[in-house]
Amino acid sequence: MQARLEAEHLFKVFGRRPDDAVERLRQGADREELRADGTTAAVIDASFRVEAGEIFVVMGLSGSGKSTLLRMLNGLLEPTAGSVRFDGDELTALGDRGLRELRSRKISMVFQHFALFPHRSVRENAAYGLEVQGVPRAERERRADEALALCGLAGWEESWPDELSGGMQQRVGLARALATDADLLLMDESFSALDPLIRRDMQDQLLELQKTLKKTIVFITHDLNEAMRLGDRIAVMRDGRIVQTGTAEDILLRPENDYVASFIQDVDRSRVLTAGAVMDTRPRGDEADCACETATPDTPFTELCAISARLSHPVAVLDADRTLVGVVPRQRLVGFLGDEQGEPAACDGSGKDGKKVTDRA
Fold first, then answer.
1. What is the CATH T-level fold of the domain 51-72+100-268, as seen in this structure?
2. Strand pairing of 55-59 and 233-238?
3. Which of 62, 120, 204, 260 is the most exposed place for a label (fewest CB within 10 A)?
4. 140-155 residue pLDDT tens
């Protein structure tokens, strides 16, 4: 099945002889070798797929290449090598006119620093993308007002940007992207300039909107907690390369290398994990004793702990048909909150060899 957005073996190199640099990277050269020659490899061999209606988060530290990667997804930067396809169409084959049309109608971008016009009202800012499309004034104002209402700004249409708080200004930026009814939203650290409480409010707003609008979103962040909270899937970048892609639970429970493992050390696992992630699916023989108070695979970890505290036996996890799919002993919950990384322990606290082990997340 065709993904909404596909990136295949993307490279972006700045400096002299970029094509030669790509070949050297393919043969095993690293960033430092190229930098010594005056060449910067911003993105190295990045491949991923984004499905329709998915929030795909790209996260990494400053300089990891995530913002450069984002700008290749809408044609603002041309890849040195590799391809980007949106709805099956190759972006590099569109030409300048085709790219402008794509960016005005199908792909919208929400920036970190709001990018509002100070001399335009909130309504006019929200309607700007529609103005670029040539939509008649009455229609674009109607659609802008609808988008502002979705973002919690009904009643502020005639205000000026400097009359709004930072969080409200970012809502205007989001409304501007939504007003065009674009198929793909690209969000470049859109909430990172906000205070922590406002930032969380914006995250809540985005998740609430996504329940209704089901947009395809690529979200860039350097904040792992934000990535874990928003992302259906997450790509972790380091030094221009994607080092792991997976769900929040995949990354928490199965980090692919020491770099990813170090990244997740301070994550609050209780806000991410669910019963489906921590349950033991192996037969125990006493499942019949677990049918008092139960959980589902989607039960949040904190709620699962509360259920476990009320029971004297493991929590039974049942699917939608009330079929037992796993059990969660109390010691397993304690283990998944530990700081060490590794494979989760068995329900009785023993590993495959019968020795006592520590649950690790």
1. Rossmann fold (3.40.50)
2. parallel
3. 62
4. 999 999 999 999 899 9
